[in-house]
Request: fold
Amino acid sequence: MKLDDPQLYRQRAYINGNWTDVGVQEVIEVHNPATGESLGFVPDLGQVETAQAIEAAEAAFPAWKAKTGKERGEILRRWHDLVMAHIDDLAMIITLENGKPLEEARGEVLYAVSFLDWFAEEARRQYGDVIPQTRGDQRLFAIRQPVGVCGAIIAWNFPCTLVTRKVAPALAAGCTVVLRPADQTPFSALALAELAERAGVPAGVFNVITGNPRTIGGELTANKTVSKITFTGSTPVGRLLMEQSAPTVKRLSLELGGNAPFIVFEDADVKKAVDNLMVSKFRNAGQTCVCANRVFVHDSIYDEFAHQVTAKVGELKVGNGLETDVTIGPMIDDKGLLKVSELVQDAIDKGARVLMGGNRHALGGNYYEPTVLTDVSQEMDVARKEIFGPVVTLFRFKSEDEVVAEANSVETGLAGYFFSQDVARVWRVAEALEVGIVGVNTGMFSNEVGPFGGVKQSGFGREGSRYGLDDFSELKYICLGDVE
Ligand code: SIN
Reply:
């Protein structure tokens, strides 16, 4: 990995301010999804090392908690500045290990630092309440305190953002963290740990542990010292973490899978809806939890919409994200590729027509053709499963009631989008959709100031925003008596 600052390429785990030695450990090999080439190794650590990291986080907690919010915010601010100073290296690491085009990876670094920026400020604003008393001799207060040691487990699709979106609020609130990055993308998290160390995050406050997900997740959930688990990933793994966390009654924030409806009503601006679908659908080659998964288009504009979207999809350029002009990278691995291929085949077998793509890409490897499917129906697997790939599925609808019912007919509820110029409908449908995030006349709502999270089996808890600190703090009620 050629970086301006080679120290950011860390092939070790980071525990209690030390970089653990790979030489004596089992290792996990990391591959570039664009080429299959090896990018290097990280240690395959297990229960013992996870317990050590938790112990380190516990030992670091009292001093970190004792700092003022302002002091913690200053350290987060320095971390932010260092990430900005190394934006090119971080973008390069993201592209190499995740596959997204370099320009998009730069965008991800900017998105990631926005959480450091935001929570550097929010650290100072962890307000409590003075509650009007019910007796003359008492005074009542509610204060916020950090929950303690947090376990953070993240996915591979936003290797920098998922780190900062969890670690920044945790640290701002006064918690300490043991983070497990995904096997496919550990180097971004390790580079961020290197920069956190340079920023002055004390040893033990932020630890990164690589290795077996079951063993590490098992220890993070079983260990009594860990007060909270924050997780981004699939719904089945979220369920497992809930189960495993039950005996020690841990707090949880789960950002799980989605199946976002994208509804285009008859009164929508079709061109704007198409442009925004491209943004929502093809970001990270369709591998985001909030990607438009089911595109419902009103019967009266269906053919025009299908025509316009197919033309736009034809302009996408698939390839290695390091090449200029490439807009779509590979799927993360062969498992991801297989899932997309099977979903498309199932839809075709059940009557969907391919307007564009529909196959593995001629480039081979993990590449899949940007695809548009029409005549998609509820019987097909794409109606219920998250595609996580560059596939547009066009469903036809005739009435608002029908489409809202179909949009809500799935078990998950992370994001939903719709396009309409009718103000009354905008409120009606925004309120009716069973999701945590609604994009109205836009395909992009992700930022550090909006509360990000789902309902139903997409999980619970909110990341970013002024609510983001709440998930990492306890509300303590203090009743002061004998005041008169
Ligand atoms: C995700 O897919 O997990 C995050 C997407 C986003 O933050 O927009």
Notes: The pocket of succinic acid is lined by residues 157-158, 232, 288-290, 446 (CB under 6 Å). The two ends are 69 Å apart (CA to CA).
